[in-house]
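Request from the bench team (R.T.):
"We need a structural guess for the complex before ordering more zinc ion. Sequence and SMILES attached. Just send the tokens back."

Command: build protein-zinc ion structure.
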Amino acid sequence: MARFHFRCIECGETYREDPQLLVCPACSAHQVAGGAIRGVLEVVIRSLPSSWPHFRASDAEFLEAFLPISDPACLPPLPVGDTPLLEAPRLRRELGMPRLWLKDDTRNPSGSTKDRASLLVVTKALEYGCDTVATASTGNAASALAAVAAAAGIRAVVLVPATAPPAKLTQMQSYGATVVPVAGSYDRAFELCREACERFGWYNRSTALNPFTIEGKKTAALEIAVALSLESPDAVLVPTGDGVILAGLGKGFRDLAGAGLIDHPPRLIAVQPAGSAAIVRGFSAGGAHAAVHAGAASIADSLTVEAPRNAVGCLAEIASSKGSAVEVGDDVLRASITRLARLTGVFAEPAGAAALAGLQVALDRGLVDRGERVVLLITGSGLKDVAAAAAALPRIEPVEPTLEAIGRRVATTG
Ligand SMILES: [Zn+2]
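Reply to R.T.: structure attached below.
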């Protein structure tokens, strides 16, 4: 008997594994061009471990136990995940939150959480015998696919907005991906990638459309639980664009609760830029869908989407976990980069610092109590978008090469 099957998150219909099957055929009939994905499929694994396996979270045995992997020999030879859960004592003291942690996903191979999804998608592509994997991306998913594909020796084609931060473009190009900058938005690149995959027969890794992207990201939840000695945190703050990272975390905590490994899933709190806040608006409206945020724009390029692809799944996870959704301005995001770096030693891109920015809003609104066990997911490295961090800092002029000049500079900058 197959180890897993798919279930449509909208109509509940179940489907057997099929390399050609990405979304529910019935619900995708209602697909609107440029809108959220209709008929997103969730992976249902028939038998999850009932006790915690004694492997590192990046070991093949661990991944095989919790993920829908049929042939572990197809796992790319690149350790992904198993990132640290940091206590951040200085940030704890400043916020008066003695049980606050950072899940530092900047330490993944390509510097972002997206590596988790790419690892599973490339594994499945190899199982299916595909020779090319394609994705649309704001930048990080493309870099992640490029990195994992390079390790595995499979071709990657990535469609990204031409306005993606230069470091991300250089990164994906260096890994050897075929980089196609699109003179248009991420949303346009997403539709083009879908059409290109159908035309050229490529395997589509685009987030939410490929169900393994959601499933792959759940490993962050498993690692958080094991780092807290299999106790669930009370709340996790999640930078949110397409809604797939939050949905993946929700799936991970639900899997653990279903297997009896934790008591209950934590509240999931989505954090979005005010300029790209479709999920926040959808949550506030109380519906199962999110309206398009036309003209979405933010310094957090990773979170800038007009139509969150997994709006349905993200809003469902927020609701079932009794979570919430908050928005933050770009000025707060920018300030949060330096606040996080100076108090914790973790340098994040604007999207990565969004969890900290959102925490302040959540505290002010009483969505989080200072005594609770709270985790901030730091999704991407600041080295991916140095210009965004630099914009919040004063320009540093060089000094004469003398001790006196150095003394004067240190005295004036403290
Ligand atoms: Zn369906």
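Two things stood out. The CA atoms of residues 115 and 144 lie 5 Å apart. The pocket of zinc ion is lined by residues 8, 10-11, 13, 24, 26-27, 39 (CB under 6 Å).
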